[in-house]
Amino acid sequence: MNGETVMTCIDAAHAALVANTDEIAQLDQQIGDGDHIFNLLRGMEALVTARVQIEAAAFGPALDLAAMKILSTVGGSSGPLFFSLLNGMGKASANETLDIGALARIFAAGVDAVGQRGKTGEGSKTMMDVLIPVARRFEELAAAGASAGDVLAALPRTAETSMLATRDMLATKGRASFLGERSRGHIDPGARSSQLMIAAVCARLAQSS
Ligand code: ADP
Ligand code: MG
């Protein structure tokens, strides 16, 4: 696990967002202002531009670098939130031997940072409704001594179930909360983009491991 691995994950997440642009745009048109996917794509393009630096860095510093790029290029609610995810993961990576237990802790630290930044947990119909269950499952699997293959197969399933569950939730955070009860019946765009990125990263890492 190093900067090249980080860049491989970014490339996988980027490709998944490009392939699902229209769907995510529509989800944010339904309960937001439609810009979510374009905010994310702008960030991904900035990360691709920083490829050489990210690949040359160690794992934690590569995440820190990616976080700073996201902060300076992505607007909306999701810019500072994705900054917090990557920055929280980067900070937690110091002095870690990157085994499955450490990676689970690092991801959980990133998700925690998002929670602090956005002041929300589960049940508000946001990306947190995917990120928290995935972080929890990751830590459970790590504690149970699961193999990398098992983790990479399991996390996309947790992400998908959790993403689908946002459809019936009432939004109480972000723009979608302005709709009140009318926010029900639509999947949260941030939950969908997070789920797609998690699935793509896991699939790519499963291929290369
Ligand atoms: P904006 O809402 O400012 O237009 P985006 O469209 O980029 O920003 O992102 C919208 C997504 O951000 C939502 O779908 C939701 O998942 C997520 N979100 C909004 N507010 C919060 C929050 N406080 N905590 C976590 N995620 C949030
Ligand atoms: Mg939006």
TrEMBL record:
SUPFAM superfamilies: DhaL-like (SSF101473)
Domain DhaL intervals: 4-203
Recorded GO MF terms: glycerone kinase activity
Keywords attached to this entry: Kinase, Transferase
One annotated GO biological process: glycerol catabolic process
Database matches in InterPro entries: DhaK_L_YcgS, DhaL_dom, DhaL_dom_sf, Dihydroxyacetone_Kinase
Highest rank taxon of the organism: Bacteria
UniProt keyword annotation of Transferase present: yes
GO CC entries: cytosol
NCBIfam families in the record: dha_L_ycgS
The protein, known as: Kinase
Organism (species): Caballeronia telluris
